[in-house]
Amino acid sequence: MELAVLPRERSLESGPVSAILDLPLVSSGKVREMYDAGEAVDGPPHLLMVASDRISTYDAVHPTPIPDKGRVLTGLSVFWFQKTGHIVANHLVSAIDGVPEPVRGRALLVRRLQMLPVECVVRGYITGSGWKDYQATGSVSGIALPDGLRESERLPEPIFTPSTKADVGHDEAIDFERAAELVGDRALMARVRDVSIELYSFAAEHARSCGVILADTKFEFGLDESDPAHPLVVGDEVLTPDSSRYWPADGYEVGHGQPSFDKQYVRDWAAGYGWDKKPPAPAIPDDVVAGTRARYVEAYERIAGEPFRAWLERTGATVEGAAGGGRSAPDGAA
Ligand code: Q0Z
Predict the structure, then answer these.
(1) What are 265-294's pLDDT values in tens digits?
(2) 231: Cβ below 6 Å to ligand 1?
(3) I need a surface site. Which of 54, 108, 181, 331 has the fewest CB within 10 A?
(4) What are phi and psi of 124, to 5 degrees?
């Protein structure tokens, strides 16, 4: 797709402009940033979502990056967008056209949406805050569950457990009716719930065939006013290790918490190191960084079913410090 991206009107009051990207910063999270990418001529507005290599555990961001983490997450998100287009439209426009060279591989040009004010969580297993709520009340988000479930057990069927988007602190669990109230359209919320469960079920089945359990995941949806044929669109990142709990199927055992596919090296190291899990998060030693990076790359290769290098090459990702302009990875991150 050919895009003539024009800069938006920009005033001194419009916020910081990245020195690298020369685009206005719209919003930043703990581990990623979103920029205003302007609009195609007479076209709809676009955003550039950039994933960093930063990693957080226990809600704190470590000062040490995990090389390639941002590119693995972006590659996985694109894999899932492409695989789930038959379920619902998504905001992906391009991973190449309109993506500045320095961030190729870890950034996506996306359609700017009117985001719905709820997080759409689907759980196939009882863990985390769902396990806490179940132990206290026998229910999660107003959904009564069978008695006698054990930690990390697979649920009889996936459940939709929305939450509010908190500006600071933790998202608050809400039931479907409260989510419908916040969205202001019960029929739309029912469609969002059904689509969320369908996306989860499809992805969990694929992941299972790759030896990975998708325990739960979170989607964000928006409305695309420029596309009346497909008003409901899934946005943000989808089915990445940062928006989901992935567990290795190998060693899965009911009755206790499961190791995270990607972050377990860091958590185990931090536990032994004696970090109290309160910010600031400690620097991560080289061997733990290397092990964690290998797990991210392994997650990409297992799920996408191709070498991670293939993603880097398709997107024209460059290697930092490579001689001669550094197109793609010479020795392979994989
Ligand atoms: C995504 C987020 C990030 C910080 C808003 N297509 C869209 N249109 C409008 N808004 C969003 C999207 Cl994806 C949107 N977020 C989450 C992403 C950095 C926050 F990269 N918030």
Answers:
(1) 999 999 999 999 999 999 999 999 999 999
(2) no
(3) 331
(4) -105, -10
Cα(253) to centroid(ligand 1), Å: 35
Tokens representing 264 are 């377990």
Which residue type does 272 have?
Answer: G
Paired residues of 219 in beta bridges: 120
Please tell me the pTM assigned to this model.
0.92
Q: Give residue for tokens 């694109």.
A: 78
- Cis peptide bond upstream of 117, omega within 30: no
Is 98 in contact with 35 (CB distance < 8 Å)?
no
Residues 6+ apart with CB under 8 A from 192: 116, 118, 120, 183, 221, 232
Nearest atom (ligand 1) to Cα of 233: 6
Residue with tokens 């377990």: 264
Question: Which residue type, as a one-letter code, is found at position 106?
Answer: R
The closest-lying atom of ligand 1 relative to the alpha carbon of residue 91 is 6
- Structure token digits, residue 105: 């591989």
Locus of tokens 């860091």 = 266
pLDDT value at 58 more than 90: yes
